[in-house]
Specification:
Blueprint lengths: L19 E7 L12 H13 L6 E8 L3 H13 L3 E7 L5 H9 L6 E5 L3 E3 L3 H11 L3 E5 L12 H9 L2 E6 L3 H10 L7 H5 E6 L4 E4 L5 E5 L19 H12 L3 E4 L5 E3 L6 H12 L17 H17 L1 H7 L7
Parallel strand pairs: 1-2, 1-4, 2-3, 6-11
Antiparallel strand pairs: 4-10, 5-12, 6-10, 7-8, 8-9, 9-11
Pfam families: Glycos_transf_2
Organism: Algoriphagus pacificus
InterPro entries: Glyco_trans_2-like, Nucleotide-diphossugar_trans
Length: about 325
């Protein structure tokens, strides 16, 4: 039997002060296997660099996604110490990266959502630089603090349309080639040729510039992008196109641009700690973090027909006639 009236009925509208949420899905099932033996230290670099570089209007959600007790206890300890970690979700079994992320995406109201792997080191000013891109390009829906010379290849039909018809698209000298080299090293693969370390594809609106495309190991999204995502539960833990279907394509389908900052403001660490990581973390924590949240303008997505036109043109210019088109843009080497 209920007595009285629920106070929520007279104060039913949800209002929040935060403007930016960071979502970390953590899967570290044990600390014995070679692949995971150093994951606790790597995650330490991740969470502590994040907490040292975000503004007060940020909130952090962490999903304990099938983690061992040591990692779960570690995360709860961080939550007790840092007020910006306002959500910790626990699941005994590994639900997969996408399902873990979407449990947060669908239940929060912040206009910007940063989705990151748990092996990322956040560098000073990453948040300011990312939010600045959203201010400079209201059409943007996905922005990474880590530029990639090959980012133009994936889910960028809307971005290409914008570059061709509403702004300008060009090649430009890579600002931080060491960032590209770091990512290449962290994944243990030769991703980039010499030309990729020298030039990347950039769009301009006449006043500001950003790199075309980005990866999805760390990226910030407008919340409305996810209205274009699949409604079914993802059937895969990782890979099998899950991140493309649930993260990359919804941004493109919604008519938003996929961009990255000109400079490199985060490192992908992989699973093997290096001496420089501890040194860099100490520098980050010793620095002054006095950034303020920026006012993000309402989005200005492209229309559906513009996305379709961009899809057709991207197949021509980025695939079939890429060499000719890039030569027209001033790059004569295979890219």
């Amino acid at each position: 039997m209920r007595v009285g009236s629920n106070p929520s009925k007279s104060n039913y509208k949800i209002e929040i002060e935060s403007t930016h949420r960071v979502i970390l899905s953590v899967y570290i099932p044990n600390l014995e296997e070679d692949y995971f033996k150093d994951s606790q230290l790597i995650f330490k670099y991740c969470i502590e660099s994040l907490l040292a570089t975000i503004h007060e209007k940020t909130r952090v959600s962490i999903v304990i996604n099938g983690c061992c007790k040591e990692i779960a206890d570690m995360i709860y300890d961080y939550q007790k110490k840092f007020h910006l970690i306002d959500q910790v979700f626990y699941t005994k079994e590994n639900l997969g990266k996408i399902n873990a992320i979407y449990s947060i995406v669908k239940s929060n109201l912040e206009p910007l959502l940063t989705i990151s792997d748990a092996d990322v080191m956040f560098l000073p000013n990453w948040q300011k630089e990312v939010e600045t891109v959203f201010v400079d390009f209201p059409e943007a829906g996905m922005v990474s603090p880590v530029p990639s010379s090959k980012g133009f290849l994936f889910s960028t039909a809307s971005t290409l349309y914008y570059g061709l018809f509403k702004g300008k698209i060009k090649f430009q000298k890579v600002k931080d080639p060491e960032g590209l080299i770091n990512f290449q090293t962290s994944v243990g693969s030769n991703l980039y040729q010499k030309i990729h370390l020298e030039k990347y594809l950039v769009i301009s609106n006449g006043l500001k510039e950003a790199v075309v495309g980005c990866g999805h190991f760390v990226a910030t999204f407008r919340k409305e992008v996810f209205e274009f995502a699949p409604t079914k539960v993802c059937q895969f833990r990782v890979q099998m196109g899950s991140e493309v279907s649930y993260l990359d394509d919804p941004n493109d389908f919604s008519g938003h641009l996929r961009l990255a900052t000109l400079g490199n403001y985060a490192y992908h660490l992989g699973n093997s700690p290096q001496a420089w990581m501890e040194e860099r973390l100490n520098e980050i924590k010793a620095g002054t973090n006095n950034i303020e949240a920026l006012a993000i303008p309402e989005s200005k997505p492209l229309k559906k027909w513009q996305f379709k036109t961009g899809t057709f043109l991207s197949r021509l210019l980025f695939s079939k006639f890429r060499r000719q088109y890039f030569r027209y843009l001033g790059v004569n080497e295979p890219y």
